[in-house]
Amino acid sequence: MKSFVCLAVLFIFLVAGCAHSPARTDSETQSGSASSTSKAKTTTETSADLSGTPASPGNKSANTDEYDDEMEEEGEATTIADPLEPFNRAMYHFNDKLYFWMLKPVAKGYGEVVPEKARISIKSFFSNLGFPIRFLSCLLQADFTGAATEAGRFSVNTLWGIGGLMDPAAGKELDLQKQDTDFGLTLASYGVGHGFYIVWPVLGPSSPRDSVDIAGVYFLDPASYITPWYYDAVTKSMKIVNNTSLSIGEYEALQKAAIDPYVAMRDAYIQYRLNKVKGKSGKTEKVKLQQPGKKEEKGK
Question: Are the C-beta atoms of residues 274 and 284 closer than 8 Å to each other?
């Protein structure tokens, strides 16, 4: 029953998101968040992939029409809006307090006790457990080379990497790199748009399309089948604390650089996901961020 309700909610969000028609952004909104977007990129997800995130529209030009013309030449447009902004802001502030009041102090204490090399090994272990999600995503995208690479990585790292604590598969000899994909990118490969922007409590920024990955993780992550349920909760909490201990300071940098941290986080999330879609498909999506309180005029 729990699994059915979870899937039903995600399906409703997905359908609603794909049918939504977001508004056009004024140049003032885009340029207002320009100074914060470059710092916000590294906060969206703690991985080296963020170094390739494209610049925000505000950094590119204050002229929105010029930016739209350039993006239209590169690929098919995709839109995203923020109709749930009051809810999203409330969830953003909830996650913000959760980070500063609970997660950061625990992660700092954990980092002082556990050496960095050990924490990197633990992160590698949890990444190895995510093999089913990446493998199935590659298959659904007809990326058979990526699926074979993932299968090879999992075999090598599980057998010779002590269950994934080490990553020998990524060495120069084998060069089997992790496939940076998920079910949100799988839907994108079939032409499914972002939908609207949504911030989930604890889980953070997302969209109806990317929220499908929540169900994917629930059903395909081996840790989800640990019983009783509180063992699973402890395992996932351990993963969050460990990963946070390796990225303390990034979120703080976002807040210092941003005029409105909520907008900066939203922009960084969209920029990051667009970059991942482009990296997997070679196509560029265009995003127009909705100006708060402004509705789309008919006929446009």
Answer: yes
